[in-house]
Amino acid sequence: MKVLIFSLFIAICFKFSYSQVLPNYLTEEEKLKLPLKFTNVNKSFTTPPSGSVRNPAEWEEMQAILIAWEGYSDFLTEIVRYAVDECQVYIYCTNQTTVSNYLTSSGVDVTNVHYIIQNLNSVWIRDYGPNNIYSNDVGDLSFVDWIYNRPRPQDDASPAAIASLLSIPLYETTQAPTDLVNTGGNFMSDGFGTAFAEKLILTENDASNPYGVTTKSEAEIDDIFNQWMGINRYIKIDELPYDGIHHIDMHMKLLDEETLLIGEFPQGISDGPQIEANINYIQSNFLSVFGTPYKIVRIPMPPSSSGAYPDESYYRTYTNSLIINKTVLVPTYYEEYDTTALRIYREAMSGYRVIGIDANAIIPASGTIHCTTHEIGVINPLLISHQNLPDTYETVNPYYAEAKIMHSSGINTAKLYYRTDTTQAYQTVDMTEVNALENLWGGFIPAKPANTTIYYYIEANANSGKSQIRPMTAPTGYFKFHILNSTNSNLLTRNEFNFNVNSSNENIEINIISETQQTFEIQIIDILGNTIYKKNYQVNAGRNTFISNANNISYGIYIVTAKNEKSSSSKKIVIN
What we know:
alpha+beta; Immunoglobulin-like; 3 domains; four-stranded mixed β-sheet; 33 strands; 18% helix; globular; disordered N terminus
């Protein structure tokens, strides 16, 4: 009997230990368990959502994060410590008392912590957790659950628990021909229909896939993401040779709609050459949702303390971070590199609280903060999307700022707040709905003299009474741009231009100063968003002047936009 009891004890301990230490990659034992055997869970849909859907970006407002308490307790405790200031935290665990006592004894406020009592296989909830979608951009919240690319059935079935707890519909890609294998660490979205991934998504669903799912072409995969997630442009980059799990979040992160944070190795080292090739591919073939090139922010990929990089060491990374409302949690390793990484985040993300969390204990398993968390979107989001105004030489005409603003109840008011000194109070300008069909609102910041910096943010109020700001960290955080001094620069860089408009009741005079010969599209839009004039002009290097007759234009306020291949600029005119 003692032998039997001891054997059971050892078996239980082995099972417990095994669940605690599963890495982010497939173990040799797990490879033998393939193909996957997936059993549909209850209360879910295996057909795509009806109507249009939108997958929100990570920097949008979130109500909660999910965590699986499966090992790495000290590391997870630090994530919870800071996340509870921003949102609710739902923890999958087998014993609420044990986890609660652990957090409390570590000084963590557990007021916003909730527990889901359920066995899981591993800590890597980013890869198997549910994905947010909204109907009609800002409508009802639902979840989409892919087939997890690991033979870990408890992990794979776990989205049903949070969906049931929060009464959120769950859609599952488990039935042919849309039985899709995917992993959350290899997916990131800009919130407006563009997603990025390594080409792992293709190999895990092709004819050679080890998961037993139906074969799919790239076009068929794109169609699934369009139907289920609202992704209409799926950018796939080549896999990195030294990143064994081929998850894009190990070396790249979207910070906003047009900014890519990308890990950087020393020249020629480890995955550095492939990352550079991928950057070139993106910049040569794709523009942001604003129609402009992606901004690239580089952040070092730290070596081990001995100086070894991922071809000989663990895949230490700073891009595997979590943006949760006004806080960014960043994995850290040792001070020499950490200081630089945290500074880069703070400079790129105005006003955010940037917190470093020691990831040395977990990185050997090929993942850190992003891999061990998953965000849950808010109910009834108020969406504000705005492209930071570029630096300009304009000192006469006001600066037009436009934003896409949406809420299910409609937008009541929107305002611009601006100042030229961070010690001053913000001044306010009303924004007007300029295009109801596109949910665009616009407003004008008064012209300022050269060598001025303008700091600004946007606030919107929905008819329901909900309010939101962008950046979410305002007024501490802000957008900003500089009024440049043209006398200090004889030439503009390629694709930059200086654009001015003068108007009267007879003529509209458009002046463009360009460094190179190029083509511009000129548009005149009325206050309702209707295009009343649109024409392409060939512009020569230097000053160019175009005059349009205003006699056939009704009195009122108009927006004149000049757009070249890389950027655009807009000015307000008044015809009276």
